[in-house]
Write a structure and sequence with these properties.
By secondary structure, this protein is an alpha+beta fold. It folds into two domains: 199 residues, Jelly Rolls, CATH 2.60.120.10; 86 residues, Winged helix-like DNA-binding domain superfamily/Winged helix DNA-binding domain (Arc Repressor Mutant, subunit A). The protein is built from eleven helices and twelve strands. It has a five-stranded mixed beta sheet. The chain has a four-stranded antiparallel beta sheet with strand order 2-9-4-7. Strand 5 and strand 6 form a beta hairpin. Helix 5 packs across helix 6 and helix 7 crosses helix 11. The longest helix is centred in the middle third of the chain and has 24 residues. It is globular. The N and C termini lie far apart (45 Å).
């Protein structure tokens, strides 16, 4: 594997990411590599090598980073920091280290020692859990404004792996520095508690979804996507709306806890029922009947 050597203290973490951890039989493998082993994989289980994270730059400490990005605006978009005033947000920005992660790049591996948490500024990051039977399960997708591994600040090792689905830009926060700031700033501590409560609710929904038929899981995903892309209440309006799927069909299947073939059958069922229609590449989905989609989500 060819890795871009990060600067400064980050190099130790990057080197650690190349070694499988003794904590878990699945540690040391990227989401992409493990997800190739899902039943029904088109390539028969071959693994892809993970692309490592790009070099980490110096701490921001300014309103804009070295590439002209508005750091305060990026951080303010994160619910974790929504309670903070300008002074507190400035303290957080002083700890932020910008990170560019190419598509397929590994942010951290399951079982790695916890060294940092991250805020996604642009792009999308997949968080996946490796199972003992060699498969992987997508826990969630983190997009702009969302945090990754904030709950792991209180653990010794990352409980899951994370990788970029597309070229992504993030901010890295050193664990020791972040915890020291949390102890000094009560509003940041409350934000961290709220973020963990939201993550717990997300995981509870995922467990509930796994008990549903795949078509119902797909319906729930599309309704949530409609609210995010079109605004809250878009589904209630009932008019046909076009949604752009943020992930590939294969990745969507992993997110729903199934395989591409089963997802294809669920999509075909909804097409025949005139609930939706899709472009041939499944990049766009037009919801024709939101009422039927809501009923299906309750199955």
């Amino acid at each position: 594997r060819k890795r871009v050597p990060p600067a400064g203290r980050e190099s130790g973490r990057a080197r650690a990411a190349t070694r499988p951890s003794s904590r878990s039989p699945s540690a040391g493998t990227s989401c992409a590599a493990r997800s190739e082993q899902l039943p029904g994989a088109a390539d028969g289980g071959r693994r892809r090598a993970a692309t490592p994270a790009a070099a980490i730059l110096a701490p921001v400490g300014e309103a804009r980073d070295d590439h002209g990005h508005d750091v305060l605006r990026d951080l303010r978009a994160a619910p974790l920091f929504s309670r903070l005033g300008e002074r507190e947000l400035g303290l957080v920005a002083a700890l932020a280290r910008p990170l560019s992660l190419p598509a397929g790049g590994t942010l951290f591996l399951q079982g790695d020692p916890v060294t940092a948490f991250y805020v996604v500024a642009s792009g999308q990051v997949r968080v996946c859990k490796h199972l003992r039977d060699g498969r992987s399960a997508t826990v969630r997708h983190a997009g702009p404004g969302e945090t990754v591994a904030e709950a792991a600040l209180f653990l010794d090792a990352y409980p899951a792996s994370a990788e970029a689905l597309v070229d992504s830009r993030l901010y890295r926060f050193d664990r020791a520095q972040a915890l020291a700031l949390v102890r000094r700033e009560p509003d940041l501590a409350l934000g961290l508690l709220a973020a963990q409560a939201d993550l717990l609710a997300t995981l509870n929904r995922r467990v509930e979804e796994l008990l549903l038929p795949v078509a119902a899981r797909l319906a729930r995903y599309l309704l949530e996507l409609a609210d995010r892309e079109l605004g809250d209440g878009a589904a209630a309006a009932g008019q046909p709306r076009v949604l752009r799927l943020p992930v590939s069909k294969r990745e969507l299947a992993a997110r729903l806890g199934t395989v591409p073939e089963t997802l294809s059958r669920a999509l075909e069922r909804l097409r025949r029922a005139r609930v939706l229609r899709t472009t041939p590449d499944h990049a766009l989905v037009e919801v024709l009947d939101f009422a039927a989609l809501r009923r299906l989500a309750q199955e």
